[in-house]
Amino acid sequence: MNPIILAIESSCDETSAAIIKNGKVQNNIIATQSVHENYGGVVPELASRAHQQNIVPVVDEALKGAGVDLKSLDAVAFTQGPGLLGALLVGSSFAKSLAQGLNIPLIGINHMQAHILAHFIEDPKPAFPFLCLTVSGGHTQIVLVRDYLDMEVIGETQDDAVGEAFDKSAKLLDLPYPGGPLIDKYAKMGNPEAFEFPDSEMQGLNFSFSGIKTSFLYFLRDQKAKDPEFIKNNMNDICASLQFSLIRMLMQKLKRASEELGIKEIAIAGGVSANSGLRNELQRLAKDKRWNVYIPAFEYCTDNAGMIAMAAHFKYLKKDFVSLDASPMPRMKF
Questions:
Q1: Domains in the chain, start-ordered, CATH in brackets?
Q2: Burial, 254: exposed, middle or buried (Cβ in 10 Å; 0-12, 13-18, 19+)?
Q3: Confidence (pTM)
C-alpha cells in the first residue's frame, strides 16, 4: 500500500498544504497571515478570511511541487480540531468538497496528535512508549504515546497554556505580536537569575500558568513605579528570568512523569518547542537524566500540514476515515 495523501491545516492563522507519498512528506507549503500583527493577537474573523484567500494557491503549489495531480490522490486529510471554528471550517469544507468530487476517502486529524506525530517525518524517531511535552499557544500537555494512534494525556494545564503566558507577558513588555519568539531572543542576552518569579503548585502532573502571569504583571507595575525606564533598561534580564521560570515549571513536571513511568524516551512538540531556551534545557537534562531526546525541525514545530499528512498516513493504513458530514471540532480532545 503506497498511499498519496493531500493534507490541509487551517486551525489558526497558518494556511498549509502538504503531500505525503508512502509515509514520506514530499513538501510542506505554508502561507502566514501578517494581518494579526496590527491587533496584538489572532483575530478569528480575519483568520478565516485569509484562509479562504490562501487555500487554493497553497494546495495548488503543494500538488505541483510534489508532481502530483488530483486524480493520483488516494485520500484528503484535514485538521478537524482543536482550533478556531471559522478557520477550521475553511479547511474542512475544502477537503470535503475535494474528497467528494474525487470519490476518495476523507481523513479527520486531531491537531495535537499531529504535533506529536511530526516526530516521524524525519530521523531520528522516538521508540514506543515515549513521553511528549506538547506546548503551544493553546495547549500544554504531557502525553504518554504508546503507539502512532494510541496516546493518553497524563498531565495538562488547568488554566492558561505556556504559549499564552509567553505572549501575554510579552504584551506587558510592549513587544509586538507574536511576542514569545522575542522573549526568547532577548533572553539569550540576559541573566536568568536576575529576577525571581514563583512557580504555581499543582497536584500530579498538571500545570498552571495563571499565577506567574499575575505575578509578572504586579512585578512590572511595582518596578515601573520606582523607575519608569525599568523595562527599557532591563529587557534582557526580565525576559531571561521569565523564560527561565516558565521552562523550570515545564521541566519539573516532565522529570516527574519520566521518573514515575520509568520512561527515558522524551519528545517535545508544538509551537513553543521552537524556543531555544526550552531546547537547550531539554538537551541538558538529556545528559543528566540519560534521556533520549527528540526535537522536531523548526519547520514542523509550528502549525503545518506536514504533521497533518504524517498523522493521515497512519490513519489511512488503519482505514480510519470520516464521513462527509464530519464537523469541525474547536475543542476536540484526544
A1: 4-116+301-317 (3.30.420.40), 127-295 (3.30.420.40)
A2: buried
A3: 0.94
